[in-house]
Amino acid sequence: MPEVTVEMIKALRQKTNCGIMDCKRALVEADGDEAKAIKLLRKQGLAKAVERRDRSASEGAIFSYVHHDGRIGVLLQLNCETDFVARTDEFRQLGSDLCLQVAASAPRYVSQGDVPENVLESERNIFGEQAAKMGKPKNVIERIVEGKLKSFYEQVCLLDQTFVKEPNDRVGQMIDELSSKLGEKIEVGRFARFEISKS
Fold first, then answer.
1. pLDDT for res 80
2. Is residue 24 part of a domain?
3. Rounded to an integer, what distance in angstroms lies between the CA atom of residue 171 and that of residue 116?
4. Of the candidates 141, 113, 112, the residue with the CA atom closest to the CA atom of residue 127
5. The domain containing residue 32 runs over which residues?
6. CB-based contacts of 49: which residues, under 8 Å, 6+ apart?
7. Per-residue pLDDT for 104 more than 60?
8. Using CB atoms within 10 A as the burial measure, which of 1, 8, 41, 119 is most buried?
9. What DSSP designation does 135 have?
10. Which span out of 17-31, 88-102, 118-132 was modeled with the highest average pLDDT?
11. Cα separations (Å) of 158 from 76, 142, 151, 155?
12. How would you label 7-26 residue by residue, b for 16+ Cβ within 10 Å and e otherwise?
């Protein structure tokens, strides 16, 4: 039986958005074969979130949070496919948790696709100049820029952020897990964060 490496688990997790332990168990059961592991996860209903991405999520709810000192506030639109799911405790808890996430981590965008191209280009240029000053070869500079862009996404994109209530998971993964559990597409429509700055 081949050894299941951290890299294999990461790759499977990236493709399926399933939890680390779920990916590890599937890879062990599939003797390290990624395709078989994906099939196992799909049979268990864990990788269904990937299939749901094309479905319409036209129901949902608006959630809000105001910090105890009244200096930070959040409004968040969380969408799902039916009003039945929108009324479930799990959906409402996710909405509340996401508001806390936005309040605590101050993302600027929902997902990587929402980051404007001019912002990405500017960040790429800055990261490239920083790496060039270190005297690195071009191929190394490209890898450094990609690594720094990944960190940038983790800071500014809600779905890429580490979940404040579950530091081992990403926000997008937590949404996909609930989507899988409830059998419906769930997505963040948009959010707004307000803060009164201390002067």
1. 92
2. yes
3. 21
4. 141
5. 6-47
6. 17, 176, 177, 179, 180, 185
7. yes
8. 41
9. T
10. 88-102
11. 11, 25, 12, 8
12. ebbeebbeebbbbeebbbbb
